[in-house]
Amino acid sequence: MRVSPHVHALLLNCEIELASGARIPRFVPAYVIEAERLTVVDTAVRSSAPIIFDYIESIGRKPEEIEYVIHTHGHFDHVGGNGIFAERATPRFWAHPNDKAIIESLEYQERVRPVGRMREQNTSGDVTVTDLLHDGDTLDLGGGVRVDVFHTPGHSPGSVSLFIPWDGTLFCGDVLPEPGAIPIYEDVRQTLDSLTTLRGVSGATVLLSQLSDQVWTGDDVRRHIDDGEAYVRRVDRTIRQTADRIGKSALFEEVCRTVLRELGLPEAAGALPIYQTTVMAHRATEPLGELST
User: Fold this and answer.
1) HSE of 229 in the Cβ direction (CA atoms, 13 Å)?
2) Domain boundaries, given as residue ranges, for the chain
3) pTM for this one?
């Protein structure tokens, strides 16, 4: 659907299959920027590529016109369609240098950040990152449409957020934790600093967070960023209170499962290394206070 003058949002389904065979349903958005240089923000998973191509045709453009693929970060569920895009459209692939390696070698990503059978089931091959994104960069998409780049690490070292001033549209990838969802980030302090960066983007009237199935507009943009930070602080309190209650001798896996139960989330996700990384990140950080307003 169109969410601003130049931006279309697609909500695409996928799942994570654990080693146990359990399946965790997920979704991941991808975005089409309809400018002179047709641009896709993240290619989602392998099965999403035909859906994205069909949508592009439905707005009167051709997939072969795609000139840029911009990655908010390099995780499997955001680069899974890359191989198919490379074959169909031969676009330039843009990403932050800190996530370049995990995009260019999915086998390497699987070794350093295993996520069930995501690589096997949901990706379509490696591509070369042809262009690097840095904090403060601006990409010209033609016709007065530009994309401003902000380095917003925390979820991954190379996470970026993108802002189209013409549309007032802010893309924040996965850096904004979604209240009520499994918390997944690698660095707590970087995540909070990145949320401060998002608050500082002047003129943002549409917020596209890839951990949310909603489009946030108007005053809800700032409110949802604040809610995300409050959730990080709630997760921090829950982890510390759980560890204190069940004792230092408790197995780490038991802490992970108990925290999920306290948050009202499925305990099966406690076996996910990407979630366990979040718990370890909190335990390696000084306790957080409340969100100041």
Assistant:
1) 22
2) 2-237
3) 0.95
Cα distance from N-terminal residue to C-terminal residue, the chain: 34
pLDDT digits (tens, 9 = 90+) for 258-291: 999 999 999 988 988 999 999 999 999 999 977 6
- At 158-190, the pLDDT tens digits run 999 999 999 999 999 999 999 999 999 999 999
Question: For every residue of the chain, which 3-state class applies, written as one string?
Answer: CEEECCEEEEEEEEEEECCCCCEEEEEEEEEEECCCCCEEECCECHHHHHHHHHHHHHCCCCHHHCCEEECCCCCHHHHCCHHHHHHHHCCEEEECHHHHHHHHCHHHHHHHCCCCCHHHHHCCCCCCCCEECCCCCEEEEECCEEEEEEECCCCCCCCEEEEECCCCEEECCCCCCCCCCCCCCCCHHHHHHHHHHHHCCCCCCEEECCCCCCCEECCHHHHHHHHHHHHHHHHHHHHHHHHHHHCCCCCHHHHHHHHHHHCCCCHHHHHCHHHHHHHHHHHCCCCCCCCCC
- Domain 2-237 bears CATH identifier 3.60.15.10: yes
